[in-house]
């Protein structure tokens, strides 16, 4: 008797829906924060504020990729989660090593400490979910 493997869930089902919701929540938070900072205090810390805007863009595109659930959506989500993880670790390390590089916090400063370290955990969860839902 040949056992067939149960089909893998799509990225936009089950726990994936919660992941998409958190990405959307962070997209709104980061977009709002970056928009306000760029509009009112851009000259004070342009790199920090542009990094927050980049984080917002990554969150938006990751949410869309996870929600699409097809092959292209998975590839987009994988790229976004990877960029996000590299970004939060890189900016986190730089913000601790040389705080003067970022006169004001970004979403990823201190490994996302201003957001309860969710920016550090979120891409890991995203990558794990993409791994869990991969096709064989």
Automatic annotation (TrEMBL):
- Which branch of life, at top level? Bacteria
Keywords from the named record: Membrane, Transmembrane, Transmembrane helix
- Asked if the Swiss-Prot or TrEMBL record annotates the protein with the keyword Transmembrane helix, the reply is yes
Task: Give the residue spans that cross the bilayer.
Answer: 18-36, 48-69, 76-94, 114-131
Q: What is the protein's name according to its record?
A: Integral membrane protein
Tell me which species this is from.
Micromonospora haikouensis
């Amino acid at each position: 008797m040949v056992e067939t493997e149960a089909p893998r869930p799509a990225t936009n089902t089950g726990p994936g829906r919660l992941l998409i919701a958190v990405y959307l929540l962070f997209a709104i938070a980061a977009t709002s924060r970056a928009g306000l900072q760029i509009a009112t205090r851009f000259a004070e810390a342009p790199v920090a504020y542009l990094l927050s805007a980049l984080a917002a863009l990554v969150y938006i595109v990751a949410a869309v990729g996870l929600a699409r659930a097809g092959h292209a959506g998975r590839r987009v989500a994988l790229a976004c989660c990877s960029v996000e993880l590299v970004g939060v670790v890189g900016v986190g390390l730089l913000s601790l090593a040389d705080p003067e590089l970022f006169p004001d916090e970004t979403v990823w400063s201190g490994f996302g400490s201003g957001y309860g370290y969710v920016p550090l955990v979120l891409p890991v969860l995203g990558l794990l979910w993409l791994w869990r839902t991969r096709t064989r």
